[in-house]
Amino acid sequence: MQHISVIGAGTMGNGIAHVFAQHNYSVSLVDVSAPALEKALATIQQNLDRQLAREAITAEVKAQTLQNISTHTSLPEGVKNASLVVEAATENSELKLKIFRELDQHAPAAAILATNTSSISITRIAAATKRPEKVIGMHFMNPVPVMKLVEIINGYATAPEVTTAITALSEKLHKVPCVVNDYPGFIANRILMPMINEAICSLYEGVAGVSEIDTVMKLGMAHPMGPLQLADFIGLDVCHSILQVLHDGFGNPKYAPCPLLVNMVTAGYLGVKSGEGFYKYTKGSKELVVSERFK
Ligand code: NAD
């Protein structure tokens, strides 16, 4: 695989483009929004500077990485030479189905079409194309340049040679691939999201406060971050929509999003991205401050 196209230049898309480009793949980064592309390039540059300062890369690698990335607002233009497309656009099923119909039309017939979706069915996305055997989940973790895992998800029709190719490619990026099957939430979010939801329910029912819940899980279970802080980091809207996928997919009430989570999302308290969730975030400060609402 030589040429990689990444669709969506947000939080995940810029990280995915960064990692491929750093390992010498030529990358076309595609977004409908030109400002998003500019922001993505600025973020990649900043992250490369950080790697350079830590002596994790050389100045030559930084320059080559930036040179390996081109940006496009036109999808047909951005995918015309792709051997692999990794879709990392907004988590919305109708949008992803539309993008995959377009990718099927404009990417070379031999290209593998991967999605970085956190929870949407790979089988359903694949069924929107005429090449379901070449569609697969390639689920990177945030922040992509730092996190080792790639959860690889086989759709119902994914061909074994496609799984083998994506596994080998993940290893070339110095990531650790883990292959799983396509059921709601796959593995990462099927296990993580009920834990986060249970932490929110414990807060809602008054069992303990924000700091106590996160401290128990950090110090008691050796988690690097407590579940409420992690929920803020992921985005409470994202947690809510993944829980909804689990709830709808399994039809089991144990996955129902906690009413407190629903209220916070409805009110726009989404965590780090909106400035407040369980904690309050001030630009430039690394201090972890519990939101006034939970004191
Ligand atoms: P984001 O909101 O930061 O970025 C999404 C980008 O997609 C935006 O720049 C938007 O302009 C672009 N976009 C929307 N429609 C498009 C289209 N038709 N064509 C091209 N670009 C389009 O989202 P994100 O957090 O980067 O998430 C992207 C995907 O990665 C989602 O499927 C999400 O579930 C998954 N994911 C997110 C995380 C996380 O922690 N944020 C972790 C793992 C997986």
UniProtKB/TrEMBL annotation:
Keywords: NAD, Oxidoreductase. Coiled coil: none annotated. GO terms for molecular function: NAD+ binding; oxidoreductase activity, acting on the CH-OH group of donors, NAD or NADP as acceptor. It comes from the Bacteria. The record marks 139 as: Important for catalytic activity. Belongs to the 3-hydroxyacyl-CoA dehydrogenase family. This is 3-hydroxybutyryl-CoA dehydrogenase. It comes from Chitinophaga japonensis (Flexibacter japonensis).
